[in-house]
Amino acid sequence: MTEPALRAVGLTKRYGRHLALSDCTLDIPAGRVVGLVGPNGAGKTTLLQLAAGMLTPTAGTIEVLGGRPASGTAQLAKVGFVAQDTPVYAGLSIADHLRFGASANPRWDQPTAEERIAQLGLDLRQKAGRLSGGQRAQLALTMAVAKRPELLILDEPVASLDPVARREFLKGLMSFTAEHGASVILSSHLMSDLERVCDYLIVLVASRVRVAGDVDDLLDGHFRLTGPRRDLDDLPDGMEIIEESHVERQSTLIVRADVPLDGTSFTVEQLTLEDLVLSYMSQAMSSRPVLEPTR
């Protein structure tokens, strides 16, 4: 049986009295491109840094590819990480970066690194500090994928890029996953990017996982219902309200349902991925009790 890309049970991280991540339980299958979404301060970076071994849990457990994060050379070699600021060394040339990568990573793939740099039209002699934001992001991605990782973790790497640079970065990412079958966890606020590349979704709000699962399954199981205002207590069993709004004569509901909706008096619409994410964010900020996360 294939080990999951990431498994967390009751994972919690505190900084003093501040709760950065709370009772996170996840089981992410291998070979997926995972979108991690949520507002600023939700705990996304904390979760990714725990997965990369840059932080240790306050409580609970986390395994990455069957092992404890950063527990040894072999485990470190399995994971590539690109932080939000796509860090590179300004005073080093691109060639220096590739030499450093080769010396630090036992599975380093120099031909892949050189091929990516050539495809990007970059000069190996050029100093990283003189690259554009998009070029620095591509260099950071090159360093990560040339490790030949089994899991690639990306913490909002395209947040500051213009649309063309963002598109090129995502093209490079998808080329890597298609060729090597690696797992990817991509944190981003940009729903259009996630819709293009992700097949698995995690929504994290206020340090807690609100929903997680296969994108197609989530979209197939969530709906917008619009109809005459009514008592919501008589909704069918198997239907849970994620978000609701009401005007004088009309109710609009976002629901998760595992029952047929044909017999209801509501007009039923499918949700977009953005609709679904925003609904769970709104739910987390309201007084409605939080639903158990979808596994």
TrEMBL record:
Keyword tags: ATP-binding, Nucleotide-binding, Transport
Signal peptide from the UniProt entry: none
List, alphabetically, the SUPFAM superfamilies matched: P-loop containing nucleoside triphosphate hydrolases
**Is Nucleotide-binding tagged as a keyword?**
yes
Name recorded for this polypeptide:
ABC transporter ATP-binding protein
| PANTHER family per record | ABC TRANSPORTER ATP-BINDING PROTEIN ALBC-RELATED
A molecular function (GO) held by this record is: ATP binding
Identify the InterPro entries for this entry: AAA+_ATPase, ABC_transporter-like_ATP-bd, ABC_Transporter_VariousFunc, P-loop_NTPase
Pfam families hit by this protein: ABC_tran
The residues covered by the ABC transporter domain are 6-231
